[in-house]
Write a structure and sequence with these properties.
9 helices; alpha/beta; single chain; 37% helix; elongated
Amino acid sequence: MSALAPRAEALGGALPPLLAAAEQLAQTVMLGEHGRRRAGNGDEFWQYRAAGAGDGSRMIDWRRSARTDGHFVREREWQAAQSVLFWVDRGRSMDFAGGADRPPKGERAQLLALALGVLLLRGGERVGLPGLPARPGRAQVLRLAAALAAEGAEDHAAPDLAQVPMHGRVVLISDFLGSLGPIEGAMARAAARNAPGVLLQVLDPAEESFPFDGRTIFESMAGGTRFETREARGLRDAYLSRLAERKAQLADLARASGWMFRTHHTGEGPQPALLWLYRALERR
């Protein structure tokens, strides 16, 4: 670890804006004590429960039991670390920004993922990305930042969940405007590992409102698709219908898999989305 940390620090030095923004964003979220609220091996008291069959005499809290006619067991909170695997879409479609007053979708996705990673790592969790094994510690933040900066060549990337941790959690962040087949496959692989998760869709406000009129040329970010029309306004209703259908599909996928789904717009501040991500992972 001593040899890895300096290399990670040097690598992270090339990414100060993203790191600084993620750290600052994480600081704005007041989350309180991080815990599991499940019975198990830990140091924090959770609750008393009535003793039952199979509870030996050494498990009884005799001081608490002396105040009543029954016997009570003192349960402690489960503190085992949890592994969380992130996948952040780095396809070229995530480079889109509909205005100079807001960031590209990919930049916001990176910020949210890294800030969430900071929070989880501070809580003792293990966090990883495809190709980057889940690990704890400060050095992992720097590795995450470096890995998140990688860019893809296609318009829409496909999630790689070959290393889903058993009983872990999964975070998929994308605009989800490409084929849903790879998303469904990734969620099925996660389900096979008993690893539920969350879907966060990141969209630019222009993708929600379709504010185009008259002659317009639509071109994919990778340049593979190009469409020209003289009446862009006439496409608005059909486009909004398709977008609503896609959101409904994502919500249905999440519901059927025990996941959670939300759409975040780059015209909004990142704090609500970060808090939602954290609470969605911590829900029971």
